[in-house]
Queue: 2 jobs
Job 1
Amino acid sequence: MRIDKLLSDMGLASRKESSAAARRGAITVNGTAVKDASRHIDPERDEVTYLGRRVEYRRYVYIMLNKPEGYVSATEDSRLPVVTELLSEEYRRMELFPVGRLDRDTVGLMLLTNNGPLAHKLLSPKHHVRKKYYFRCIEPLEEGVERRFADRITLADGYECLPAEIVLDPDRRGGVITLTEGKYHQIKRMIAACGSRVTFLERTVFGDISLDGTLARGEWRPLTDAEIASLGG
Ligand code: URA
């Protein structure tokens, strides 16, 4: 791998910044300054420093974001703000993308990565990754809704959902829903099938990862090693 590619993949410097730094002697490989940032190194074995700091090579990066309302789950959009705009410049350079979609008005736990194969696996229907959502709705939900969720809700278009769990708030106008699939507007359509309308939706859990309560809306942090391991990453 070229040194300038390593520094740009790790979000440390653009190609141009790397070649300027190399010319100034600010990049070393195994203790020796290198003048040419296009030189090839082995990122797993060679020790590279940039501006005096050891460069830690990670092939893949994983982020947890507390998605705010109003952002599209995408890397670009011609009209609307996208979730990757919330990242720092360093992380924006890493070309991360959201693992799955949340609606523009849905908030909460969103994972971003540059690990395409893992994202694909987590989203594949056969993996049944568990997701939890907290919702509020207008009309109180009727008696027996728990049974209906467990027995498979049928959506307006005839789609039969996989068995799901709903645990209601005491006022029956909200609660926690656990799904093992992710169809378009699924929670909104399930609640509509039960005669109500969602007014608030927040994802709180994805697989074994829970939304970090210290992150305000719009804030993010890298996943811990244990969280990455729980995804199989
Ligand atoms: N279900 C929805 O209706 N919307 C989301 O964003 C996620 C799940």
Note: The longest helix spans residues 15-23.
Job 2
Amino acid sequence: MSKKIWIKNPLTILAKNSDGGIVINGTKIVELVPKGATPTLLVDEVYDAKDSVVLPGLINTHHHFYQTLTRAYPTALNKELFPWLTSLYTVWEHLDSEMIYQSTKLALSELLLSGCTTASDHHYVFSDSTKDAIDIQMNVAKELGMRVVLTRGSMSLGKKDGGLPPQSVVQDEQIILEDSIRLIKKYHQKEEGAMTQLALAPCSPFSVSTDLMIESAKLAKEYDVCLHTHLAETIDEEEFCLKKFGMRTVDYLEHTNWLHNKTWLAHGIHFNDEEIQRLGAANVGICHCPTSNMMLASGICKTLELEKAGVVIGIGVDGSASNDGSNMIQEVRMAMYLQRLKYGSSKITHQKAYEWATKGSAQVLRREDIGEIAVGKEADIAMFKLDELRFSGSHDPLAALLLCGAQKAHRVMIAGNWKVKDGEILDLDIKKLQFEHTKQAQNLYIKANSI
Ligand code: ZN
């Protein structure tokens, strides 16, 4: 028998008709309690939320966990996307399975502590020592109890064939496709409340062949999984597509059978008006990565035009070499500020930014069971207290989280289970994790610099 928990009388809650709180039974939200009322259901446990801002768990739709090992990396500093990537590929080629384990654990822990309950990752660097990278990531997600949509990334177009990455980090296409099938069969849960899902994610137009794009789309259709890639992040990429394929990015997407509602794109910045209409008509998803876009000076995503056309917009922290943090609540703040710069303060409200990181992100991942506090949805909840100096003197609690720069959730629940209490992850030695992760980052640096 599952326990019924009443999260009672929150300071404020991002949900309709639930000023009296919500009731959770098992993995799901079963009742919204109006102001001043008590639950109609008999509850077993009450959590007094009078000091808490309650949000739906934040959903991160784009990341590269392994990059937490190359934060603020000396040779990658102060560069734009292509030179930044070429300075890092030769570091990342030295990743091994212990590095994947520690970096995944650190990134997921960091996300969890910032109120994130579902995370996607795009791992695309495979070598002989990282063949089982996705298996390792899946195991870490299970260990931490986080909901994940991991992607089987890939790179197959090396320098010798006109691509950007060196040959050392590209893989044979047959191997990529066979491994994709293996991973879908092993980890992709189709049912409501799925804790592990898999999508297919050729890295970008400049690092995979057209064939691999087409074959990945075929596989995704056959197994009914989503497709993910980086697209229209920079002008460099647009020029690459024109030169190499004789077409712009959206034409390329269509040419490779990716222009549909099972595709979500990271960044999606450099689209013209006609392309925006086509992406909208196809109901493509776009993950807006504001910090990364500012760090690499890539440009600003046209979120409102895209949404108006029919695109769904979510939020992602992007990899930790171009952010360089994995903090979701901070990323919501960044999205609000960067988009205000483009559209003005009255059009980009704090509610709008929250919507992108919750319901929007869920739609991007094609999930109807998460992203909202409503009856029947999974009980994924992030709670914040306004008890730090930064919040002193604030009035509207929901606005204060973003405007005053919240960094840390007080409590986090995933699928009805508390994962964070008093700002700490349950059953995790965080100091040990930090120590082991730092050690692996140093090992990677040594390996990359001793050749
Ligand atoms: Zn990325």
Note: The chain has a mean pLDDT of 97.
